[in-house]
Design brief:
18 helices; 34% helix; alpha+beta
Length: 597
Amino acid sequence: MAAQAVARIGRLRAAMKEAGLDAYVVLSADPHLSEYLPDRWAFREWLSGFGGSAGTLVVTASFAGLWTDSRYWVQAQGDLDGTGIALMRAGHPDVPGVSAWLAQNLQRGQTVGVDGHTLALATHAQWLQAFEAPGLALDTRHDLADAIWRDRPPAPRAPVAEHLPPHACRARRDNLAEVRQAMAGHGADWHWLSALDDIAWLLNLRGSDVDYNPVFLAHLLLGRDEARLFIAQGKLDAGLSGRLAQDGVVVCDYTDAGAALAALPRPSTLLVDPARVTHGALEAGEGLTRVEAINPSQLLKSRKTEQELQNVRQAMEQDGAALCEFFAWFEQAQPAGGMTELAVDEYLTAARARRPGFVCPSFGTIAAFNANAAMPHYHATQAAHATIEGDGLLLIDSGGQYLGGTTDITRMVAVGHPTDEQRKDCAAVLKGMIALSRLVFPEGISAGALDAVARAPIWATGADYGHGTGHGVGYFMNVHEGPQSISHRSANLPNTAMRAGMITSNEPGLYRDGKWGVRIENLVAARIERETEFGQFLAFETLTLCPIDTRCIETSLLTDAERAWLNAYHAEVRKRLEPLLEGNALRWLSERTAPIR
């Protein structure tokens, strides 16, 4: 694999020289800035061999480096071994960002190349500013993947389906009307969308072009009284196209998107989200007046309706029942020996697949035993995985896409006899998760302001974790959905405020490099708690239903209030899941939800 990466980087350098480029940046992105990439745009992985979902590769004539964050440092170190590609630990105080490194290491007059159709509009503006003083040029015209990736996969062409009641709880016309109202507030004649989750939500459509996310490749141009959906031919059947037409949505070919922008009347005002559209997509819109703001659909779909929340609760019951069946099987099968991390994924996905409404996993299952769990986004492979044996902790982070909701849960599992130190770490993480679960807070507070509540019990032990505490979650949509993010690193903007109806993960962690890792995660919904003279206050309703393995927890470190919360949570889990289980799974549920004293 390393020799392959060396050869491919050599071919890239030859293509750069032919294009007159002194540096080339390969982003982990597609023309829709998706988190998970269709194979056609997995160019960075193809070049470098690094398989993490986040990373940027920079290549010059004499240097190749991969920037990735702390979640992937250990994985990247192994993947890049022997490739000649340096690991650049993004976020480390001694490591400059990509644009800063280029500005420091290239000479005045040299040119940086990047495929503009994978470069966010906001990043394009930042790079132009960063390159101005050192006198660097930015060339966004070259997709060098086409030049050197001879067997580059085609774009996916899976069919698109309609998301229908009772699972679809908002009418397409209502969605369009709300976004048009927001457009009017911005003084926009037109609104351009490339973000796949926004388009799928807005039109009540779902697809399978991107792994784990029920979305499809498309662009959307929304006017005051018309809409044009740009999508590959054959993905919509005639009946669905007709129903879209009844709601004023005209179906056009995917390749006609640029021409449609170019043909808009001038002067016209175009609303775009600079973080969710690429520079390349908008090049054809030169001459239009641009208004830059968050996509209105981002805010609208983040606030789930009461009917959507009720559907999510039902999906959580099915998901929790599947997890109970899996854990009951695992605890019987694991002591016999030979159990691997790969088997966890196989059996857990099979348990979910037996449940009504299940569509697919919502992300790649993380099953990580002991030291592997110290890598927050570790994934077992056929080439590298652990056998689950001896004593320690197994971390399982998994989720499902259901017609009525999206799930994401992390649980720690005791294997043999966890050590006192492991049980103390699990207790610290659980205390953090409970603290956030019990919080009451003003509506409209920045989501990032809640981060310290979950971290405080972990900080008290002298530890911390590198990832955020919580991400937004979609409704039968992307498992990572904005705009809210519970992280002290997230921007403090009006758009990141916590609002009623938002579903967010609650997942503090603690990682001991080379030893073990701990993360406990539930999904929570922000609900109106009460209104006082100081305004409206929210609290979290815990949505996830699955026992927390108290064998992993040093329960003597829990306060009376924390024990009460855990016992009440387990009582709710038992009440909601008992009707869906029988046999070994029901017995397992009863044992694992027994009150602690």
